[in-house]
Amino acid sequence: MSTSPSNALRKSGAKRPRKAAPPTAPKVGLVSLGCPKALVDSERIMTRLRAEGYDLVDSYDGADLVIVNTCAFLDTARDESLDAIGEAMAENGKVVVTGCLGVHENLIREIHPGVLAVTGPHQYETVMAAVHQALPPAHDPYVDLLPPQGVKLTPRHYAYLKISEGCNNKCTFCIIPSLRGPLASRPIGDVLAEAEGLAEAGVKELLVISQDTSAYGIDAKFPRQSWRGRDYRTRFLDLCEGLAELGIWTRLHYVYPYPHVDEVIPLMAAGKVLPYLDIPFQHASPSVLKAMRRPAHQERTLERIKAWRGACPDLVLRSTFIVGFPGETEDDFDFLVDWLEEAQLDRVGCFKYENVAGARAQALDGHLDEDEKQDRWERLMEVQQEISARRLARLVGRELDVLIDEAADKDGVAVGRCYADAPEIDGVVRVADGKDLRPGGMVRARITGSDEYDLRGEVVTAD
Ligand code: SF4
């Protein structure tokens, strides 16, 4: 749900690309907004552009054309996307729009009539056709400039692995199924081959993403494919087993608590998959979950969490919640807070309910005023901060593997993450005496302190 631009173009001061193509190569800039799924779309577009000999630049004035990959999950994201298109039009003038906001072509053209083309999410071919028309590729495609793992927007040591597009659920606050269509799982052989390529290119952490990761393969009826001489089915457990073969970190995002999720917990307990589950519960009150039409809302989640932790005591659980959903009573909210106290989740993000144009929740009765939503948000965050601080404090004194993201600052403190920390959304581990540590390095660190979000540690051994 993040909408922050991941590689917003600069207005001036063009920087030369690290691997510059010949001077005749047409130059394209890309602004990528939205969630990790959109980020992967951007990476695919960039990969295609590089494969065809386009030069990727990071400033508006150095680009012959700019692609804006938009988000429309919330109205605020839609406004941010429209602003980004406006900025690209003002600073460059040749703009192709893609991504989730692209389904509202009339709106985009009404506000920004000069855009060259508008396409929807994961319409790579249409984006490339629009680029070809406005900015034909150079004669020589420079295929040799393309690394086998494609072009990535994330640092070299971690990568998002998108296993499917779209969603079969019908959550009333969400328009993603109408934007991205029904669930379409990628064949398991393709996914594992991509993961293998990333691992060979130096990636040390794979972040598995989709709209509904535990539903992987349901749409295709779990077809089989062979990888490294073994038969795998296109389904959640086989995916985890295959990724475990790579010997790097695998982190699972957007998992719903369907019963078959229990099957991957032993892999976590055995250290083959990170003991980390990102489960967007969104609420706990049965009546609110029903009004939200959440998947797996009837599962006995507290019992499941207890059983998972019994089988894998290190398990870290991350979730997001929405407060102030239409019809949420004070009792519903108290139920949620009690549930959180019981569940003791490690990491929690919370959003105030926002009306999204086109979402069915808009038509529900009982919309709350903004003050009430704010009040509930503050109360929930206060409760959760104490829980998170308690959960992190349990790690003090332990020795953990830490993947370094940032080299040391002037005080010698490097920044990394342990198994409990997903990039961008969770906390970090600040490693003292880390002046020799480099991004992508893995160190064994003793955890020496903690607060509500982050850990502090010291190096035991470095690789
Ligand atoms: S699971 Fe629900 S919230 Fe998530 S993409 Fe599907 S419909 Fe939207």
Written overview of the protein:
By secondary structure, this protein is α/β, with parallel strands linked by helices. 30% of the residues lie in helices and 21% in strands. It contains 12 helices and 20 strands. Strands 2-1-3-4-5 form a 5-stranded parallel sheet, sandwiched between helices. A 5-stranded mixed β-barrel has the order 16-17-18-20-19. The protein has a 3-stranded parallel sheet with strand order 6-9-12. A hairpin with a 4-residue loop joins strand 19 and strand 20. Helix 6 packs parallel to helix 7 and helix 11 (330-343) runs parallel beside helix 12. Bound molecules: iron/sulfur cluster. Iron/sulfur cluster binds next to helix 5. Iron/sulfur cluster binds at residues 167, 169, 171, 174, 176-177, 211-212, 295.
Radius of gyration: 23 Å
- Global morphology: globular
Binned strand content? 15-25%
Please give the oligomerization state of what you see. single chain
N- and C-termini, Cα separation: 35 Å
Task: Name the features.
21% strand; binds iron/sulfur cluster; five-stranded parallel β-sheet; 463 residues; five-stranded mixed beta barrel; alpha/beta
Walk me through the topology.
Layout: E1 27-32, H1 36-51, E2 55-56, E3 65-70, H2 75-91, E4 95-99, H3 105-111, E5 117-118, H4 124-134, E6 158-162, E7 164-165, H5 176-180, E8 184-185, H6 188-200, E9 205-209, E10 224-227, E11 230-233, H7 236-244, E12 249-252, H8 265-269, E13 276-278, H9 286-292, H10 301-311, E14 316-323, H11 330-343, E15 347-352, H12 370-393, E16 399-406, E17 414-417, E18 429-432, E19 442-450, E20 455-462
Parallel strand pairs: 1-2, 1-3, 3-4, 4-5, 6-9, 9-12, 13-14, 14-15, 18-20
Antiparallel strand pairs: 7-8, 10-11, 16-17, 16-19, 17-18, 19-20
Helix pairs in contact: 6-7, 11-12
